[in-house]
Amino acid sequence: MTNTALITGASRGLGLALARSLAGAGWNLVLTARGADDLERAAAELGATAIPGDVTEPEHVRRLAQAVPELDLLVNNAGDLGVTPLPPLAGYPLEAFRVLLETNVTAPLALIQATLPALRAARGAVVNITSDAATGAYEGWGGYGATKAALEQLSNVLSAEEPEVRVWWVDPGEMNTRMLADAVGAEEAAAATDPAKVAEALHDLVKARPAGGKVSLQ
């Protein structure tokens, strides 16, 4: 029986790297991201289903849930860095913070709620991608880190409430991605870990299926 995974933010970075790893193991993939062109190219490469759109939009969430009546793995990888250059909390624009919460916290919860029946039926798993900024006091990272802290606690409670569904909140460490480059500059980002290496570790986690909890991959 073929396993099915739904991955958000799958057009580049960790989402695309994980999709490639799972595709190599024969998984059936449903991929979503806002960048339709990049997503379609990724789906064509991997033989996956592409459903471009914004996970903050309820209609898009409904479309994704309808596409996966059977679901073994949901990966909430899509996220936003927020305002750049990264501002101190004293000057963080509040409307921008509300948008960041919508993207990094509310949208993952909405997709979890929409796909839980399929995940329960399959005794599936949820991976929520978080960050060490959720717990570290890094100057400038307060807005982003606060949303990831909220996502971690959401994951923690969901793990307790849904014992038949594995829930992991995963800190992948610094990766050479466009998001990190936007935060710290391209030169520093280039020295970070290749997302493909992190994706292999994440794939190993899914295969091992340990108890739900926080996982640090670096």
Automatic annotation (TrEMBL):
Cite the PROSITE patterns for this sequence. ADH_SHORT
Keyword Oxidoreductase belongs to the record:
yes
Task: Give GO MF terms, alphabetically.
Answer: oxidoreductase activity
Pfam families in alphabetical order: adh_short (PF00106)
The EC class name is oxidoreductase
Q: Which CDD domains match?
A: SDR_c
Return the EC number: 1.-.-.-
Q: Which residues form a coiled coil?
A: none
InterPro entries per the record? NAD(P)-bd_dom_sf, Sc_DH/Rdtase_CS, SDR_fam
Q: Which UniProt keywords apply?
A: Oxidoreductase
- Tell me the protein family, please: Belongs to the short-chain dehydrogenases/reductases (SDR) family.
This chain belongs to the protein called SDR family oxidoreductase
Q: What species is this protein from?
A: Nonomuraea helvata
The organism's taxonomic lineage, starting at the top: Bacteria, Bacillati, Actinomycetota, Actinomycetes, Streptosporangiales
